[in-house]
Specification:
single chain, 474 residues, alpha+beta, 10-stranded mixed beta sheet
């Protein structure tokens, strides 16, 4: 038997207790982590709620009466090691938690026949590894990987996520019995759709297909929810005007969206205005500017307009109060005494705004209408018009450089108002990170993880050991 002194026994007892306590803490920590890992529970601690979804999405998911499959076209294990894919997987986990939605991961490099068997030979070629496929019955919606992210176009940095809008929009699309189509006109010198890709994506995400049509050569299809004129530089022809009038008089309503811009050459648009006057509206051949308090510094024609909430319009019960307008024409809301036509202003300037006539240079100061809607009944149903004096705040380059909030929300509301959709165009917003964030690569993130998980604990233990060495003889 060893004959230990009381001092040695005391040290041994304290040391043993410390070791036992450390082992207990480690075991408890491991057990707690194992238990928590099995629980379907996540907590979004980001101030911007980057990895949460809106109440609107929960409502849509709760109301589903059809089975929906969401396929992420990449290997799940690899996705968990990629910071960008792992972020999207947090959204997928939320959708997978609902009874009618099933999320699956498919590595199409290892399973090359999956797409052909799921969407057919023709459509399979459109999909790429990293994309997402949402399916309900025979309805399929593709979500390109890039659409899930919000990227600053100047720096190329990831600044947020658009996953919720993409996924929820796709689910609404594939579960719908009827998919309405917005036909973008190409016959009057319109702007290129490619310059408005954000707007087009938002339209698709809100349960509409998008196609092009030249009304000089084709009739209006029966599945047309609306004809969209995107910054036309020429007037519509007489034959197109006649087609639109006949459409309004048919058994189902015809709807038109016109995103106009001022023309520096002063080209008149009499046929467009004949169309607008059916809805008690008129487009002026001018450009509007504002005072310094309501415009960008040094750019009086890049102005903020007050959004007007009006009953029986796209802006019914709308709380948003400002929108950006760039080089906008003004619109006249015409007074009418008939019962088949009506119009309301949707956005206005202050009373200090000025409009300048393109032909004469004459100016007029006062409140100007920048956006309006109208209704016209010539057939069994009511036709509707959405008219904006400017399209530029919806163009990709302006959205990127100016951070415009007008990236399609009002137009989406107008389309749903026209098509009587029940969601009334609730455009799900992008989730953007705050301004104070650190850009890092995967390798540097791994390095920081090693520092936090290994090096820092080793340093702390070393300091503790040195202190113990110094104090062991006390």
């Amino acid at each position: 038997m060893f004959n230990l002194s009381e001092k040695t026994k005391r040290r041994f007892r304290f040391g043993t207790n410390a070791v036992v306590l450390m082992i207990v803490v480690i075991v408890v920590a491991v057990l707690v982590n194992l238990v928590l890992e099995q629980l379907p529970m996540t907590v979004d601690l980001t101030s911007e709620e980057l990895y949460s979804v809106t109440d609107k999405t929960y409502e849509i998911l709760d109301d589903l009466d059809k089975e929906v499959e969401v396929y992420a076209l990449f290997d799940q294990a690899k996705g968990e090691t990629d910071s960008n894919l792992a972020s999207i997987m947090k959204y997928l986990d939320i959708y997978d938690g609902h009874a009618k939605v099933t999320v699956k991961y498919v590595d199409i490099d290892k399973n090359p026949t999956f797409l052909r068997n799921t969407v057919g030979e023709t459509r399979a070629a459109d999909f790429k590894a990293g994309d997402y496929l949402v399916k309900c019955g025979n309805n399929v919606r593709q979500i390109p990987q890039a659409n899930m992210y919000v990227v600053d176009k100047e720096s190329g940095y990831l600044i947020g996520y658009d996953a919720e809008a993409c996924l929820t929009g796709a689910i609404v699309y594939v579960t719908s019995d009827e998919i309405p189509v917005v036909y973008v006109s190409t016959g009057s010198g319109e702007a290129a759709m490619e310059d408005y890709s954000t707007l087009m994506a938002n339209i698709r995400n809100n349960n509409f297909d998008v196609a092009t049509i030249n009304l000089n050569q084709a009739e209006i299809p029966e599945d047309c929810a609306a004809v969209l004129f995107l910054s036309p530089s020429e007037d519509i022809s007489t034959s197109v005007l006649s087609k639109l009038k006949s459409w309004f008089q048919s058994d189902y309503a015809g709807n038109v969206v016109c995103l106009m811009d001022y023309n520096k050459t002063g080209v008149e648009l009499p046929n467009f205005n004949e169309l607008f006057q059916l809805f008690s509206l008129k487009l002026n051949n001018d450009v509007v500017s504002e005072t310094s308090d309501m415009c960008m510094p040094g750019y009086p024609q890049r102005l903020a307009g007050y959004i007007v909430s009006a009953d029986d319009s796209p802006n019914a019960n709308l709380s948003k109060d400002l929108g950006m307008f760039i080089d906008s024409r003004s619109i006249e809301v015409l007074k009418t005494t008939n019962s088949y036509s009506s119009s309301v202003a949707l956005a206005k300037t202050t009373e200090l705004a000025t409009s300048t006539d393109i032909d004469t240079g004459a100016t007029s100061t006062g409140e100007k209408v920048l956006m309006a809607s109208g209704q016209y009944q010539a057939g069994l149903d009511v036709s509707k018009l959405y008219l904006s004096g400017s399209s530029l705040s919806l163009r990709d380059d302006y959205i990127s450089t100016m951070g415009s909030g007008m990236d399609g929300g009002t137009l989406i509301r107008a389309l749903n108002w026209m098509h009587n959709n029940t969601n009334e165009g609730d455009l799900i917003p992008e989730k953007k990170q705050g301004q104070n964030y650190i850009m890092t690569t995967d390798s540097s993130a791994n390095t920081m993880g090693i520092i936090a998980a290994i090096i820092i604990p080793v340093v702390i233990m070393s300091i503790g050991f040195v202190i113990w060495l110094k104090r062991r003889h006390l």
